[in-house]
Amino acid sequence: MAGRDFTPVDSPDTADLVILNTCHIREKAAEKVFSEVGRLRQLKDSRAKDGKSMYIAVAGCVAQAEGAEIVRRAPAVDMVFGPQTYHRLPDMIDRADAQQARGQTVRVLDTDFPAEDKFDHLPGKTGHKGATAFLTVQEGCDKFCTFCVVPYTRGSEVSRPEADIVQEAQRLVDGGVREITLLGQNVNAYHGAAQAGGTQSLAGLLYRLSEIEGLERLRYTTSHPRDMSDDLFEAHGALDTLMPYLHLPVQSGSDRILKAMNRRHTAEDYHRIIDRLRTKRPDIALSGDFIVGFPGETDADFEQTLELVRFVKYAQAYSFKYSPRPGTPASVIEEQVDEAVKTERLAALQALLNEQQYAFNQSVVGHTMRVLMEREGKSSAQLLGRSPYNQAVHVDFASLSGAETLDESATQPYTRHMGRLLDVEIVSAGPNSLRGRPVLTGTSF
Ligand code: SAH
Ligand code: SF4
Predict the structure, then answer these.
(1) Which atom of ligand 2 is nearest to the CA of 149?
(2) 344 and 373: one domain?
(3) What pTM, to 2 d.p., does this model score?
(4) How far, in Å, is the centroid of ligand 1 from the Cα of 436?
């Protein structure tokens, strides 16, 4: 929209266009849209009294899945468009302007899966700020887990060509980015056109990106256990730039439930993957996603999930109550689990996961780690960064004694470290973050 002279504003009451970008993965996320539209409608009305207009747009997966329903339930919404048509936004504005000029009710709906690739039509990211960035390499999913809307809202798996990704990564690094997270709904199924001809794998792409000078860290998310290929295991052992952290959702520890979920792997398969990863990279930190209360889940099934968690020892995790999604096979299974049981299981699972996360954080106290400084912290003379294991680290520069700062030019503020990797000694750990102090040798950077 920059090409149309649109600029970001800080608050919606001065906006000509407000876009709600939405998530359809669980019901709670989808419901938020309608309450938010209600609030925006008041702003829109009060702007109208001053003779100003405001378009309200709903974008993303709720728009994709429930476009017609949104138009019916929320007349204040002017535009509805899905994740695959963002590049058409300028045209949609033109259409809305034309409707408004004719005195018609503004109504623009675009939930196509167009043949053209949106990435070819979106301008490359410019003016990216900060040392870390996400880079989409793959979209969509062909797995059809029975609880999940992604294959319907995002469509089938599509991978971007390697050349485009390398070019975008280079541009980000030129702008100061030091860490890139490759993104995809099913990222390790990546199979894009290789620069050298043929098909490139995710591992191949990681090797290629590691050649970019100044790109110090790579991560990727989210992966499916079925797509952990041999070359990806190798990459975790071989690539220093690939951070020792992997988000690998398992959903359940019960084979019966995994089968009903159509995950196409067993708990044992998952164990083997974790063992293999740890053989290649013994310090790898693991993260996962879990669903409790999938239809038909018994206490015994749930106990197997807890058992799997005890085996893996997660550094971090996300866990959810099963949420029936319209149009998915699991939503019509009769034996739905009681809400109270879901609540109880979620609490038990989260207590265990939190305990593990805290223990993992505690285990790094006293160690010195490379931390990428991302932004200013809340306290004075503090920067906030991430450890190789994706832990948030608050780094206190105020605690430095005079001797330690001698080699550094005392006239330069601590903020000069922003966007850099710094050796940090971890002094304490909480459940969600670490505290550390910089180890400044004067020659280390
Ligand atoms: N592609 C990833 C993640 C997709 S969605 C994967 O294969 O795992 C992110 C997470 O949301 C999922 O891992 C799952 O744990 C959760 N999720 C998806 N659908 C859900 C539903 N209907 N109810 C509750 N949680 C759900
Ligand atoms: Fe959804 Fe992930 Fe399963 Fe694909 S693999 S259907 S995105 S949970």
Answers:
(1) 1
(2) no
(3) 0.91
(4) 34
Looking at the structure, tell me whether residues 106 and 238 fall in a common domain: no
Note the pLDDT tens digit of each residue in 115-163: 777 778 777 666 678 999 999 999 999 999 999 999 999 999 999 999 9
Which class for 14: exposed (0-12), middle (13-18), buried (19 or more C-beta within 10 A)? exposed
CA of 148 from ligand 1 middle (Å) equals 6
Provide the domain limits for residue 411: 368-439
Longest Cα–Cα distance of the chain, Å, equals: 73
φ/ψ of 436, rounded to 5, equals -150, 170
Q: Please give the Cα distance from 386 to 406 (Å, whole number).
A: 26
Among candidate residues 182, 186, 189, the one with its CA nearest the CA of residue 217 = 182
From CA 113, how far away is CA 259, in angstroms rounded? 30
- Ligand approaching nearest to the C-alpha of 320: 1
Residue 23 annotated as binding site: no
Residue type present at position 8: P
Q: How far is the CA of 382 from the centre of ligand 2 (A)?
A: 39
- Ligand 1 pocket test, pick from 291, 316, 349 with the greatest ligand atom count within 8 Å of Cβ, gives 291
CATH no. for residue 420?
A: 2.40.50.140
C-alpha of 241 from chain center: 19
Residues 78 and 208 in one domain: no
**92 domain-assigned:** yes
Length of the chain: 445
Residues 19 and 167 in one domain: no
